[in-house]
Amino acid sequence: MSIMDDARDKWTGTINELTIGATRADGGTRTSVVTIGGAAALPFMNFEGPTPRAPVVAMEIWDREPDDWAQPLVDVFGAVLKSPADWAKKCVEEFGADMLCLRLAGTHPDFGDASPTQAAEVVKSVLKAVGVPLIIWGSDHDEKDNEVLPRCSQAAAGERCLIGAVKEDNYKTLVASCLADGHTIIGLSPIDINIAKQINILVSEMGLPLNRIVMYPTTGALGYGLEYSQSIQERGRLAALGGDKIMSLPIICMVGQEAWRTKEARASLQEAPAWGDEATRGIYWEVATASSLLQAGSDILVMRHPAAVAAVKKTINELMVK
Amino acid sequence: MKTYSITFLPDNKTIEAAAGKSVLEAAAATGIAVNSVCGGDGVCGKCRVLIKSGKVTAKPNMFLDRLDIQRGMALACQTFIDGDVVIEVPQESRVGGVPQLATEDAIRYGSISGWVGEGALFPHNPLFQKVYLELPKPTITDCVCDQERLYRELRRNRDIGVMQTGLAVLQRLPDILRQNDWKVTVMLGRRGQTLEVVDVEPGNTAAYNYGVALDLGTTTVVAHLVDIGTSKTLATKAKYNSQISYGDDVISRIMYASTAERLTQLRDLVVNDINDLIAGLVVEARVKLHDVSIVVCAGNTTMIHLLCAMNPGNIRKDPYIPTACSPPTIRAAEVGIKINPRGLLSTLPSVASYVGGDVVADVLVSGMMRSEELSLLIDMGTNGELVLGNKDWLVCCSASAGPSFEGGGITCGMRATNGAIERIQLGKNGDVLSCNVVGGGKPLGLCGSGLIDAVAELLKAGCIDRRGRYDRAACGSRLRENESGGLEFVLFTGRETALGRDLVLTEADINNLIHSKGSIYMATESLLDHVGMTFDDLKHVYIAGGFGNYLRIDQGVRIGLLPDLDPAKFKYIGNGSVQGAKMALFSQEALLNIQEQIAGAMTYMELSTSHKYMNEYSSCLFLPHTNIEKFPSLLSGVQKEAEIGVTG
Fold it and tell me: Does residue A12 lie within any of the structural domains?
């Protein structure tokens, strides 16, 4: 017997594994797929249990040209912002993206009001342009999402996309589509682990199994609720590792959108001369937010700036070394 | 100021009211109690009236649709007199009828003989006694004064401490004694540590000694007339608290009572109710009002404040301090209660602002403080009160459940009176298989137990999901969209209801119920957690409160209102308030027990400072609960494997 008790935690639960993307062999057209989950301990704590799958960074692209993105983002992508397919290609070919998150921002009634058919065309064009798996995200307008997302789901049938997000009071339409077209789904909860669990129950009770759901517990950027989101995420993960199967689901974080919303990321040098170079400030902000959330068990980080993506991927690779 | 004449139909009562008065105020002045959950703030939509003719001005509101307004429908509190008008107050908008609780309650729980009397737990030693005395006449050698002569005789074979007699009695005493040949009946009332000679009556009237046990509820006032000598209940009556027109819950009453004038107004309203009840009781039991000498009242802290016209304002404000938890025994006439003019009014002590004498009475009646075993008591009303403990300790808390158990905040909600659906059974697609209506006939609305039934049955039929949202496919044609864009389920079409209006249950209604039941369940769990215990430690669960009697345990469990325990552990205790008041009336020892062993020993836990309550409340906003493993009896085999397959 050793003098000191073994201080390592023992866990009973394992996070569900989930694969996004389907190759020809599986009935899709993807050239690569991404598998997440499988963790049997807190992230990167190999002495307690394995983190078999590295967290994945997905690069965020839009169906329309963003009109409010910070200058460093506009500069790095340039002309491709006008074409979702070209944008997707640039992310994969130039910046090495493993996965893309296509946001259908232009379908929002107040920001373009693109039709479901137009949105489905965009989805098809992106799937055609690149071979990586795809996350499809609506415009966060419930009624419009219920028209748009089923059409996009259909357009991507068999590709095993990750589609979102469903909420407690609006999930039935999208769950039915994902069931029919073989996709996986994102459940959104407003920083509340109880509601997160409720969504998982509601979706699975419709017949979409728990191993096809990813949780989005909402994200706060550094200085804007990061601690809160980190602790909620961690509480959820601890419950899962403790054996709560309904919470044993991978987690997605919207890092880019939150980090680039902060005034620290956006302010010009003239506006905030003491804050340093505006070309790199936002990148650091995105990296800091992402690296923190990794520790709480994020499985997918949706990010914007290629330099931040590269830095976080490097961090992940280093943390994954046994 | 200009005044107009206002006529209310179908009562055909007319009143003069100043221009600018609200219809609600005018109705109240006429003695017509119009429903008003919000106390006239225009936010509950329950005070619908029909303007038949005349001129009014109305503020816009969101409760009436175009058709309603065309028909002349208006909200009484948002409509103001601007000319002579004729107004119809439909039945659905009235505080009316006799609450269902009274009679059946009396039959089921009328007897407390097991508690008080010879060989029982508490001796028969009433708070108010009549003693017949034949006094020795004074002589030159036995020359103590009249008062002392009375005291001496009383003390001859009784152990009596401090005694007092009012001046008014002393002024009459010499004549009464001498005119009746020194044969008199002394009325003795217990006032704290002092025994008062309340009055002295000629001859032997000891057999005519009656009292009233009163349950002074926020919604209902229940009165039992008892024969103090025999401990028998002679008659029971109940009516709705007329203060309802000034708010459904204690908070809105407290807010209304913000001036001395309004405080007195609320006091008078409830005192009138009490007087109505007592007047009815004495007629029914054929006793003289003069022989009713004591009223013992159990009520929540706010109701007792209002009865005594003590300022309740601080009950509502942090840190929630009542004026008095144990007001003194006073003469009933001081607040306007009409019994024997020298008769007494005693109230059962409160514990805190939101745990009142009604709960203390429940505890007494449950007997939980005499058992080694751990018991939980739940008094379910607008304010849910919970008590946990055994013979060594008691801890309590109060959970604001909202008015949905009383039918408030529910589109077709109503109190448990004639026309209320108290039970309902639904089949596939939510088709109504059977339904019990209070008083028989066509249904008018859903009361608390009917609402719980309906939601539990919809859940069982798969018509709603576990968040309480309708499933279009499962509901079929009974589901429709209402004017505000929400979904509603038609339980009964207009043809099948008493008022010809569709009886619906909206998603918002279900959501309100989920919040109410969630707060009760979470309070229960927090209270147990506070003392380091779990549901498994509970041996008994007592359900109190008028509404509680009609609650079906299995349905309460199904929606997650009650913990999933062996049904044999649940017991209804009926109207504990009125029974507890009665026990105190019959036995000073019971009152002492209430004061010292119950109210005095109960620890109050403030839920608003409980982290557990705040963190986990949202897990209760699900049917029955987010963590289904807390409700093992509701799990199907497959679910069991999937949901609680915790390994290791």
Answer: no
